[in-house]
Amino acid sequence: MNAGLQVLGLRASYRRGPEVVRGVDLTAARGTITALLGPNGSGKSTLLKAIVGLVESQGRVSLDGEDLHGLSPRERAQRLAYVPQRSLLSAPLLVHAVVSQGRFPHRRGLADLGAEDRRIVDRALQDADIAHLACRPFTELSGGEQQRVLLARALATGADVLLMDEPTSAQDVRHALELHEILGRLRERGAAILVCLHDLSEVLAIADQAVLLECGSVHASGPAAEIVQDRHITPVYGVELIQGGGLGFRLTAGGEE
How confident is the model over 168-182, as pLDDT tens digits? Predict the structure, then answer.
């Protein structure tokens, strides 16, 4: 199996300020979901932004052994998709237009979407359960709906490396579970998925591997079930795990809670 996404010695800061990410090594292998976890301020979101080049960084990021910075912007956008926790988009673009942006790396110049592009965009709208919102302005949607639009845009790229920043933070129970199913299908197709998560029970439910950050550095990494243990969680979060605590959910046959 190809390595997927590899990060070596990554360091990142904002506008020459103090380092937020301090020498992180990690691998998000193909056919796996890797959870990035850690308390607030541990550097999770900054790490994702550094990987995709949105903040100043040093270190090596590679896709299947090929240096990310050696790829053209079009090639990077075709192979790696980033889903932020929230969008800075302020223009009232229709949802269909926002999702269609995912096809830009596959188009030549200003050419219109082809039939295959339209099919992929329609499928992404359906997979993210936002087809009914296609003609709504993005700026009029709720936070959870906007998150699903950003997910659909990433799905429309067809990229096989997916980075996601807390994609279920504003989702209701049903849509969170549907996202889990989408990620599971992508994993089965051989995608490499790196996702920031706060809910440790969610980490155990969907992740194969986990990387636990503390103050911008890797505290521990390995199989998710081994990382979400008191010996790792307690010194970083200052809490103890309660086995069997909390509620569990699953989708019904009809897709309702």
Answer: 888 888 888 989 999
CA gap 245, 58 in Å, rounded: 41
Ranges of each domain in the chain: 5-85+159-237
Token pair, residue 34, equals 């890797």
- pLDDT tens-digit readout, 44-55: 999 999 999 889
Give the angle subtended at the CA of 193 by the CAs of 89 and 42, to the nearest 5°.
70
Burial 46-62 (b: 16+ CB within 10 A, else e): bbbbbbbeebebebebb
CA 150 to CA 200: how far, in whole Å?
23
The CATH architecture assigned to 5-85+159-237 reads 3-Layer(aba) Sandwich (3.40)
Task: Determine whether 36 is exposed, middle or buried from the number of CB atoms within 10 Å of its CB (0-12, 13-18, 19+).
Answer: buried
How many C-beta neighbours within 10 Å does residue 42 have? 23
- Asked if residue 155 lies in contact with residue 82, where contact means CB atoms within 8 angstroms, the answer is no
